[in-house]
Fold these 3 entries.
Entry 1:
Amino acid sequence: MKADDFMKLDAIFAPRSIAVVGASSQEGKVGNAIFSNLLHGHFNGVLYPVNPSAKHIMCVKAYSSILDIPDLVDLAMIILPPQRALQTVQDALEKGVKGIVIVSAGFREVGPEGRALEDQIVALCHAAGVPVVGPNCLGVINPKHSMNASFSTRLPKAGNISFISQSGALCTAVLDFAADRDFGFSKFISIGNKADVDELDLLRYLHQDRDTEVIMIYLEELRRGGLEFIETVKQITTYSDHPTPILVIKSGRTSAGALAASSHTGAIAGSEAVYDSIFEQAGMIRVDSINDLFDFASCFTMKDSQGRRKVPAGNKVAIVTNAGGPGIVATDMTISSGLELATLNEETVETLKSHLPATANFHNPVDVIGDAGSDRYENALTAVIHDNNVDGAIVILTPQSMTNVLETAKSVVRIKQRTTKPILCVFMGILDVSAGVKYLQEHGVPVFKFPESAARAFGALSYYAKWLERQHLAQFPLKHDEAKAKEIIESCVARGQTYLGEIDGLDLLRCYGFPVLETKLATNAVEAADLAEAMGFPSVLKIVSPQIIHKSDAGGVMIKLKNREEVMAGFEEIIANAQKYDENADIKGCLVTTMAPKGRELILGANRYPIFGPLIMFGFGGIFVEVFKDVAFRLAPIKRNEARRMMHKIKAYHLLKEFRGIPASDTETLERLLVSLSDMVTNHPEIQELDINPLMVHGVGQGATVADCRIILKAPEQNAQISRL
């Protein structure tokens, strides 16, 4: 679909009339299930069954062709084999339908012939400006309109959460799971092959849907996952007047199918790193399980008395419990979910002491003791929720013989209605707590069976609140010598040189403002000593060979050489090591340079992916990068704000600050270089892979120095072929 056509989806989600082409009276047929669901679900529009072999379907007059229907048709549901589906699409367009859903399988997913048919259908519909959902999908559901245009037997209750799924089979399981949790939906969509309407179209549409407050997605792959997707979704999750949270579960997180690559970046970054980057840059929240998907969604629908979404102002949580063990579990999970246990102020502690028995714990987590009645819970929760150090609360109840579960639930609801801070409940058990659980659900209070689920859900709320309130730094006024860089790349490609070592690589980096050391090639030991003496000791030698990419592995690097004699001996030793490492290597000589000023060793990298484009990497570098893998990724292009968030993501970020007498690093320069790297790989599609390892970052105001680099190029036509895969 075109970006501005998404409102045409009204014809699919809120049609006034539906033609079910392939409707059947035979039970067990998909055409029977879909028509039956619409008819017996009391769809509030007009239904037209289409079947040339039937006079009526379930007592409703049937038509031989969609063209025979005397009235206007908004939506055509097609349940026919591929060849007949193509003809029906042509008839539907002639009829003037406004939307099409193709449930049938047998298209792209079965091979070239099926894909050709699918492409023909899409081309016809694009020309007519008619959106198509599917093929190979479950269908669409809109509970508010009593419209179950799918072959799922269950019409969920109306709610304010929409669900998009690439898997039709998963949809039926999710609907059953939702029914068990009394979960309602605004829209429910199975997109199948995504021949036309895809996730991005639906996200645009659902963001404008007044009945949708949260969007959940089950995703297998994206076909539009680059800059367009990130910028569009970022507008949805952040910048609009009503930001919409998007929760995504992506299959294949543990897949080992990373792209084969020779650089560190390529070895570390798999396709999941690309998806993680897309989700983070767009403000989507990735979850690990279907259970978490529902848990988190229930929290994002919480509203205050003014109808505004409840999100915490910070990450400090108070826990109120009547059992020590679950309180400890909640405390542990709170920390691991990126939250902090709030420190209660003195006034709060005094208030708690006035209401609770002496055996209670008056500090966070607050233990009201097992015999607590609803009044004790209400007094304790009121005290902590009024504390300025508390951003929200988790209430834990284990059913004891003296526990009034329902009255405790009512106490929580009363407090919830008076505060803007989120309150989550954990009522542990099933039967003994059922009355309280039902009451909480009916009054919009998220309730969980176990404390770890509540802690993870609160962590998601805190993450989203931080996303909404993030700061926006002024951008760097960067100037690059793009023309010179293009000249270097074109020259290398023209002579068939796809691997750029430091000689050409440093020249290329210099065009984008990277600080590099004077580096020259020596072809013999005497020349190496002369160059080192002219540059000044101590010196560094590095092997130069197109076949030896990771120099340290081949014994091809020597550092801190203090005089001519050490340089000459080092040259001979490196050449010998290289010949032993790869006897067929084409050895050009050794690079001679000076030692980089002291600093922390980092790595900057890039790797180009089909569809998505260049993925850039940042982390601590040197020889341990592949061991610790403490790196962060972002899809280019990025600017300063994303560069900073990227840097903060690595676990060892605090090591860039002042640490045990070591001065803080020049993080502003790192931000600038990450943006420059992004610009370079975006401007020059020939760059397939790139490593700057190590990049030595110095103290604040002292910049950074490129100590080593490697760049792999591909001709533009090769990259074009890759992008079409």
Note: Confidence is low (pLDDT under 50) at residues 255-268, 720-725.
Entry 2:
Amino acid sequence: MKISLLQQMYKDVLVGIPLAKESHHYTSLLNLCVEQSPERDESCNRMHLPSTNGGIRSRQDQDTDMSDVPTTDDTSNSFGSMNSSFCPREVMLLQLTLIKMMVAKAQSQEIEFNMRQKYCEIFVLLLKEAKIDSKLICLLGSYDQLLSHMASKSLASLVYFQLKEENTLNVTWLTFSLKTLSGFPVNTHVAECLWTLTSIIKDILKDKVLSKAGILKKLLAPLDAVLEGFYNSILFHHFDSHHYTSPYSEAANNLISFIDLLEALLASRIELELPLRCQRVLFLKVSYVLNLISSSIHYLIKKLFIMLLKKCILCKSESGSLFLQNPSLYEDMLALSSAILQVVNLTWLNEIPLSGKASYFGGSEAPPGDDTQGGSDQTVLRALSLVVLKALEFKFQNSATEAEIKGDFQSFMSQLLIFWRSHLKSSPQSHPVVHHCEWLSLIFIEQDDDMWEAAKALLLIYLKFDRLRHDAADNLSQKEEETWNFLTHASGYNPHCIFLFFLEKIAFDSTVLLDFLISSETCFLEYLVRYLKLLRKDWHQFVDVCNNFDTKHGTFQSISSVKPPHQEKQSCMTDESLQIACCEPEPQTLISLADSHNYLVFTTEQGDNEVAESNQSNSLVCTDSTSLLGSLQSLVNYDSSEDSELESDGKECLVNTKQVPLNKEVETRIRETGCSYTGDKRNTLKSEVLPLKQKESNTSSCLTCMASSDNIIPLRIMLYKCTKCLEELQKAISRLQRRNLFPYNPSALLKLLSHIEKISKNMNPQ
């Protein structure tokens, strides 16, 4: 009889039909039949109810068993065919589902006021007369994990309801929580208590109307001290114990549940002007977590803690301007960054295995032919890398002098570069990394938000170093500038290199940049504005880096593989890291310009990064790299006649042709442009951009990359591609702005892009 009434009540609540009978009637229907076992005290009572699976099961089983809970559609459609003889377990699951559903509807503004009033009356009776909170707490200890999970959700909903509607904290639940958490590790049944508290915090954070600060303080203040004590207790364990080697053990379940709570506390801290100690403990005592990550605990738990660290280190980014107004957050980030860098300096990164099995639909085994097995976990690799980079950013942003941070930064970056090299999985199609600045795009290219956070961190570090250098000396010598440039490349944080490598990875597609600017999920806008401001005053360095890109597939010798002339004996990096930085020799294609016959002669030979000398007065070095040829295709697929103006008749270069007549105008242009060299065998290209002139053809294009004599100049392909990409981006933004389709005011960004375009045209007249 009771089940049929519950079914009818469920259907009425589901479709929004007013409950016509007295509130006491519905209270009696929702009242749980819970009998406490005399074997245990009230706080950790374990109920013995019928269960289809029985025993204590894993968290994974809980998620699977959620299919047993009557869902909205399934329940309403199947009530007609149900047998009225339900077992007690099914009745209780339906009661718990109804309680949670009614709490949600009682707080919804879409429900009529009279109906919400009725639900509130029922809850008051359930709490004061039926003592539903005590019964739900008893049900938390059930051996039936589905009942325990549903009881936790229902209890959290009722506690949250009282906080919001009555501005009071449920004393029964508070007493239970204090006793359970303070009793650990003697009492190990803490997961259910942690679930409930986590659910309450999440419910508060999801509420868009509620004044979160006051209600969070009312909830967490009584638990503040005991939560910090619990943090110390659960993370100070000896995690080499066999209890933590399986993610399905009770000990591991407790730890995973605590990670969820720490994440909720982290999300809630920005709501309070003065956060509580329990919201700061992860920052101030992060060494416990760092030690745990390097222990022999199960890989899943390590991964969860690493992802939590990532959220902590990004807390400053998410809080925005609040960071400057919140001294406690500043203090916490400084403590967090210092602790992370301290363990990184002690080879902590190398102690973390990143070879966890990948997950697949239907199981954990790789399908036949899959080659990802045995590779590093790229998600964790990115997270760890970002944690270290953001810690470096914050630590060094708060340093006063260059000497204070210079040595430490180079040491940290050296370790990070070695860490990347040892874990980045290379495919047969990938080319060997020959420049340290390329690592960033290789590591983060599959995760946009992380990539731009990492790029922004290195850009801010670069700007900090640059500012400190100029503060220390007004006029820097050429050797000092050369040393500075060398160090930025050797440590992998030259901003121009990083930006160009990224553009190369996306084939200079301006629509990709536009997507990043429109998206609210990345910090690309902030990064791009900062970088364009740097580019505006550092244009010559940018041009030099573009020249190096043009020569990297030919006779280019990596900057990071050669020390500056005045630093032959001084090493700022470890020998191992310097060896990593060295370029590998690549196939080279040399183009000789026979001046007397006006012909381009093409030959191919293997080299070891030496510039080939020619008896001709004019010779050009060109590459046959397939990757560089492929990237050129976007330059010749013109979309309009306006773009096609760059073409001219009779100015075509074909790689597969032995001799090609050279137009007199082109020859004259090459001669006039020229190339000068400076400094001890380290030639710096200084030239003007030549437009790419090429007609559509089924043959490969010739990419002229580097000059090998004093009066011959390379075509600056990389510089042309980059500036063209930025111009296209500027046009796209302007077009969207004119149509009022851009999501924010891009005037400042357009001004910067316009300035860069003017600099490019003034420095490189066409």
Note: The chain has 33 helices and five strands.
Entry 3:
Amino acid sequence: MISYLRIACCFALLPFLSSANSSFTPFSQTSSHPFLGQKCISSEKTTLLQLKRDLSAAKPESSHQPYSRSLLPSWKPDTDCCSWEGVTCHELTTHVIGLNLGGHNLSGLVNSINFLNLPYLERLNLVNCNLGEIPSFVEKLGGLVELDLSNNKIHGNVPKWVWLLESLVYLNASNNFLNGFEAPPSAPFSSSLSFLDLTCNLLEGSIPTLPASISFLSLAENKLTGEIPVSLCRMSNLTILDTCYNYLTGQIPKCLEVLGDTLIVLNLRKNRFSGLMPWNFTEECSLETLNLFGNQVTGKIPESLTHCKRLQVLDLGDNQINDTFPFWLGMLPNLHVLILQSNSLHGPIGEPLTSNDFPMLQILDLSSNYFTGNLPSGYIAIWKSMRIKLNGSTMYMGSLVGKIPIGNQFSTFANDSYEGNLGLCGFPLSKKCDEVEDHQSSAAQQESILSDLGSPFSWKFALVGYGCGVPVGVVIGYILFWRTKRCTKWIEQSLKAKIQQKNEQNRRRRRRR
């Protein structure tokens, strides 16, 4: 009997809050399609032509920023500006309401007043425009609903007037050099801000008081310190909270459990949180992802997590949790990923309580703990989601025969690591795969991955060292696709609805004028 069980899972979870890979693009990325008889407002057309002249005069600072004259060929005086690239007009009033200048060098136009001659502007895309500061004219665009300033060179503080723009719903200033926040307004302030992304900046200090209207908040990959403020618990619309890769300390607030019925993603990975997990989740829990990896959390795993029936990813790895194997997590019907590695978990794992424990589990990491005994064969038999189709037949972990996958992790295993798997072939084994077998194996792997794309995750695995019925070591490699990447479909639809509602409110207000 083996006294020490080690299950090592090599995985690479794609960051679903990655700005560069976001699938949610609220701004117009292509030219608008004019309605029959649409004709833009003359004064606004003049403003856009002046902007083109200013842009054409500005030379790009890198090869990634081409001359604007080559990027805006459709901006011609003798054509309707509502048909121009990057310009969106209102379908009835024909006022310019959207402007996409992403990729153009605007470094010399941050104080331009030309934008103020577009009084009905609601959406402004200034992504990758070589900006060194937040343009001053933005503060005066009273009807602005969506603003994207990501991937620039913006320094300084996040200005407090951002919270005071009553119409602003979406603000993305990720991938810049912002280093702090101006002091927030002292008096209670009204804000419509729902989406705030400040990922990948240089933000220092503590998290300030933010608008209670926010539903998406990402402060990931900064230099924030201090504790999570209690004010976050009063953000009753908060759905996604990401503060990973900072230097936040203290105990994770118990008050976050109040947000259990709205919070879908809680990502506190790689901070310096300590203490217990104090939560008592109710049956209204809506969490789908809980990531506390790489902190100093102690104590036991809260059994109230069984109320979080939507939970798909639970990552508590690299902490100081002292507990036994949380077999009761097997009750969760949608749990795909369970990471408990590098803690102080101990004792036997035990046999499953029912034949339906962990029904959707695909990724498991229990490595670097103090479990005793074998991995119970009962779990291996019921892990239905860890099956793969090969040549039309359903195969289990003990049978991924065929070519050993090529990759950095698999190349580290010696020849004897695959002992007992007579159907395997290819490097590092001396048994070579013939071309037909190699082709069938690769095609089967691809078929398996593609067949599961209807769910948020696709995966493949290989079993090594599973000889003589004794689990010496299990290595599960997988590919994870968070198909909605930055937002779940629910968030995207919800945010678009809020933006549409705010746009309509602005239009009604202007008509009353």
Note: The longest strand covers residues 96-100.
